[in-house]
Amino acid sequence: MSDKGPLITRSKLREMKKEEEAAKRLRDAELQKEFEQKEQEIVQQYKKEKKKIGTVKGSRAETSNKIRKRSSFLTKAIVVVTILLMILFYFIFFG
Questions:
Q1: Residue 53: which pLDDT band, with cuts at 50, 70 and 90?
Q2: CA dist., res. 62 & res. 58, Å (int)
Q3: Which segments cross the bilayer (predicted)?
């Protein structure tokens, strides 16, 4: 009755430690796999966003030149139409 042996032997401790390490490796592998899957989802999401936006096909300088040309054309057209209207009203009222 007074046999005071160890409650857990060294071999039992080693086995428990190996089991814990194996379980830890499995958890780490699962977490790594889950992380990679989420990372791939994020990459795919950004690819879709990038496709929606599209690529830039011109520079700002080209765009501003086009706008400037269009603006000057419209201004000239407005001036011509105004002059023609003035001539029309002149002939209607004084002609």
A1: confident
A2: 7
A3: 73-93
Interatomic CA distance for residues 79 and 59, integer angstroms: 31
Rounded Cα distance, 66 and 84, in Å: 27
Tell me the one-letter amino acid at 6.
P
- The half-sphere exposure of 4 on its side-chain side, counting CA atoms within 13 A, is 1
Q: From CA 73, how far away is CA 35, in angstroms rounded?
A: 58
DSSP letter at 58?
S
Amino acid at 23: A
Length of the chain: 95
Residue type, 77: A
Amino acid sitting at position 50 = K
Which residues contact residue 16 at a Cβ distance below 8 angstroms, ignoring those fewer than 6 apart?
8
66 pLDDT more than 70? yes
Q: pTM of the prediction?
A: 0.44
Rounded Cα gap, residues 12 and 5, in angstroms: 14
On the question of pLDDT at 3 being above 70, the answer is no
